[in-house]
# Entry
Amino acid sequence: MIKKSLAILTAGLLAAQLTPRAYAFNPAEQALQSPAEIMAAAEASDWRQVDSNNLMILTLESGAVYLEVNPLLAPKHVLRLRELAKSGFYKGLSMYRFVEGFVAQGGAGEQETDIAPLQQEFVSHTKQPLALDIKVNDNDGYAPRSGFINGFAVGQNEAGTQTWQLHCMGALGMARGNGVDSATSEFYVVIGHAPRYLDKNITVFGRVLAGMEHLQRLQRPGSKQTPFNPIIDLQFADQLAPEQRPKIRVMRTDSERFQALVAARKSRPEEWFVATPNYIDTCAMAVPSVIDD
# Structure
């Protein structure tokens, strides 16, 4: 049984179109409130339930890490993780690589496997523009524009026909060798400052919703622990019995409430702030999540 608790994740934890809300308010007026006040006023329609098909649970010795995968932008990589998880491939392997402030990586490491390499999905190409739920920035140095789709921080070309997930803290990606189509099964999670220079160089296909602290507690290189950072299991929620499936809500990034939250994070209307640049880096804009008992 997976232990479930109630928690609202803040900026340290970073991220389908739903029916529009039946009521509306003015986000510009809400920006005069603090982020905490906006969150306190959130209603049920401001949230979406994470699909159990897309909820991945990485169980480590210290606890569970909950991640949401992103089939919209990287369906082949999501399918690969689903198939491997269902087969029990990761059970008993380890988080064998840990780089302080950068990445935690898990899988078979240097062990020989017969897993076929995947075709890269660095960027999703669409004939029609893929609409952002909200645009946060124009040209941040790495993307002509960036914002959110379905709770995931993304970058786009100016036409909106090329979309990729950003290497924000908490991003889930698939490690590869020198060949662009060489990824097989080794996954990683960004655990520090966003390494945006990796954008469009590696396939990113999900993000941490909760449990980042368990990745931060991993043994560092040189530890005498045996086995080293074992993976107890890696599963998808729909592979569990219904009563064991975690129930996690994510704030809808297409909601006016999230729009107001972005505006408040940019302007910081709280009395404490002296400098208010009216700007926020897209990776620094946390998408709130709630784990329900």
Remarks:
- Residues 1-25 have pLDDT under 50 and may be disordered.
- Helices lie at 27-30, 35-40, 75-87, 212-216, 256-267.
